[in-house]
Amino acid sequence: MWLAVLVVLVLILLYRWYRQSQILENLTDKYVFITGCDTGFGNLLAKQLDRRGMRVLAACLSDKGAENLKKETSSRLQTVILDVTDSKSVSSAAKWVSSAVGNTGLWGLVNNAGFGLAFGPNEWQTIEDFSKVLNVNLLGVINVTLHLLHLVRKARGRIVNVSSAGGRLSVLGGGYCISKFGVEAFSDSLRREMRDFGVKVSIIEPSGFRTMILSSEVQVNYLRRLWENLPTAVKESYGDHYYEQCTKVCENLFKNADPRIHMVPDCMEHAVTAVYPWTRYSPGLDCKLFYLPLSYLPTVISDYVLCRLAPKPACN
After folding, report:
1. Which residue among 15, 18, 31, 176 is the active-site one?
2. What stretch of H or E contains 65?
3. pLDDT tens digit sequence for 197-236
4. Which sign does the torsion angle of CA 238, 241, 245, 246 carry?
5. What averages of pLDDT result for each successive group of 10 residues across the chain (316 residues)?
């Protein structure tokens, strides 16, 4: 009995491996537009797809980022300057993409551009702090997608949206997790709407990786600004020790972050090039073994675990 079950499980795993290992043909004919290619995941993905011979259209925020990327890639790769929070910039980039792909359509759209400078208790932050993150991580994703969706639909291609483990389990205050929950919701509805058009939508849910978004120096400075701008009464409620604990959490986030950042662009590449892309990718062991399992547990359990790990205010 148990042997039969084991054999069935092995066969299922082998079939799953075979199915997921199948890669599309004629990749050199396909255009892929990637946002946030100055550094990090987007930069690595642009280089990987360029090495595969794909026609990469890389959007960078700065001229310097675009120039550096061109130096490390082939002449096939083209760059454009894009600020996803600026509607005029998005509209201009969309026209550029449309001109570049012509009648072939856009095979892949990878919404990678992100902003993570938002860690800290909700009460410490202003609506402007929330807006900065939401404008990039959520509204930017939506705006770029809406401008390019007709080109992806024409190619019956792929849309890859970068969310986070924080889009499944709200572990931090501020706009970051809120924005990633929004990306999950947008992607889910878009996937169902595009199904009959032959367009596949994938979500990347990385855990903590050692990129600029988790820079401890940047995060600690941001947290210090929040703390210094608080009214005295609020500071007294939380206490200096709470602030010190928050600072230590920021430092540990970067210290314990996974340095193998290639795992994330590898998932993006699979979503763009595989015959059968996954709906969700969860790179990072802490995502698979902690964040996602905890997100499926009853709320009372996940609250207990996260509250045990969180800083404790003076009023406690």
Report:
1. 176
2. helix 63-71
3. 999 999 999 988 877 766 677 888 889 999 999 999 999 9
4. positive
5. 75 75 88 96 96 97 95 96 97 97 96 83 94 96 98 98 94 93 98 98 91 74 91 92 90 80 95 96 91 95 93 79
pLDDT of residue 78: 97
Q: Which two tokens stand for residue 33?
A: 């537009």
Q: How far apart are CA 290 and CA 166, in angstroms?
A: 12
Which residues are 138's β-sheet partners? Answer: none
Give, to the nearest 10 degrees, the angle between helix 40-51 and helix 263-273: 50
Q: What is the DSSP string of 23-64?
A: B-S-GGG-EEEES--SSHHHHHHHHHHHHTT-EEEEEESSHH
Q: Which two tokens stand for residue 292?
A: 């996602």
- The per-residue pLDDT for 298 is 96
What distance in Å separates the CA atoms of residue 286 and residue 218, rounded to the nearest whole number? 23
E strand or H helix at 81, and its extent? strand 78-81
Burial of 313 per CB tally in 10 Å (0-12, 13-18, 19+): middle
40: left (phi over 0), alpha (psi -120 to 50) or beta: left
The verdict on whether 176 is a catalytic residue reads yes
Give the dihedral sign, CA 172/176/182/184: negative
Q: Residue by residue, what is the 3-state secondary structure of 221-238?
A: HHHHHHHHCCCHHHHHHH
For the beta carbon of residue 23, count every other beta carbon within 10 angstroms.
Answer: 12
C-alpha angle with apex 54: 52 to 56, nearest 5 degrees? Answer: 120
Q: How many CA atoms lie less than 13 Å away from 2 in the CB half-sphere?
A: 0
Contact status, residue 277 vs residue 270, Cβ threshold 8 Å: yes
Rounded distance between C-alpha atoms, residue 175 and residue 226, angstroms: 14
For residue 258, give the 3-state DSSP assignment. strand
